[in-house]
Design goal:
This protein is of the alpha/beta class. Helix content is about 35%, strand content about 20%. The protein has one domain (about 5-210): 3-Layer(aba) Sandwich (Rossmann fold). The chain has 7 helices and 9 strands; from the N terminus they run ααβαβββαβαβαβαββ. Helix 6 links the parallel strand 6 and strand 7 (about 160-170). The protein binds S-adenosylmethionine. S-adenosylmethionine binds near residues 18, 47, 51 and 141. One of its GO terms (molecular function) is methyltransferase activity.
Length: about 220
């Protein structure tokens, strides 16, 4: 049986603003619990308002490790005003730009998980460039352009320990199914083609791969 969150964690996840559907969230949670057994931090790229972070934070709590979540909190391309995924409530009226950090902090506080998460506020490649600790999970759910998805993979996959899990969201092999582009699918193909990763599970658009070799 894959590990499942307690009802109150599942309820907090389902109540949180964000983009992760429940069945994919459950698969992510199971992967995070498994990865937590390595005793290393669990890293997410793409915090947004903390919906998926709740799951990583609870898995981290179970494992006695820390969840790390990276976001500049200014939103991806498709979340900007005028685009399908824009939520006007995420705009800071004082500066007129998106700022999802306050909502993220409220989400974590309400879920009682603040102590298990370190929020890294900045551009993913910039944070990755100064990062120097192995992680047990890399969950890629940041920008969906080729530039951003590739940079997330190139920046963070090198920090993934042997046996650690690489989870990629929004992997759409069929272009008719995708809503935000196929860059995550291309990253998934690249990881498999590298020979460093072996597929563990596929749950709709969530793919989980294990590091079974060196490189990216
Ligand atoms: C699809 S949302 C994440 C959804 C979230 N995981 C959830 O469960 O609701 C993508 C997030 O990635 C962030 N993002 C996009 N490109 C980024 C970059 N280069 N560096 C840091 N964050 C980035 C955006 O600000 C946005 O909050």
């Amino acid at each position: 049986m894959p590990a499942a969150p307690e009802p109150e964690i599942l309820a907090a996840f389902e109540a949180a603003k964000g983009f992760m559907p429940p069945h994919e969230g459950l698969a992510l949670y199971a992967a995070a619990v498994e990865a937590g057994r390595l005793g290393l931090p669990l890293l997410e790229v793409g915090t947004y308002c903390g919906r998926s972070t709740i799951l990583l934070a609870d898995a981290a709590r179970r494992a006695g490790v820390t969840a790390l979540t990276v976001d500049h909190h200014r939103g991806s391309e498709e979340q900007q005003p005028g685009w399908d995924y824009h939520d006007p409530a995420t705009v800071d009226p004082e500066i007129g730009l998106m700022d999802t950090l306050p909502t993220f902090r409220r989400t974590l506080h309400r879920a009682g998980l603040e102590d298990h998460v370190v929020a890294l506020v900045g551009r993913s490649p910039q944070v990755a460039a100064v990062w120097n600790t192995p992680v047990g999970l890399v969950f890629v759910d940041g920008g969906h352009t080729d530039e951003h998805a590739s940079a997330d993979y190139e920046g963070w996959a090198p920090h993934l320990a042997e046996g650690g899990l690489l989870a990629i969201h929004d992997v759409f092999p069929d272009p008719r199914d995708e809503f935000t582009g196929q860059a995550p699918y291309r990253v998934y193909l690249r990881a498999l083609a590298s020979g460093a990763f072996t597929e563990v599970s596929a749950t709709d658009s969530l793919r989980v791969l294990r590091r079974t070799g060196a490189g990216i």
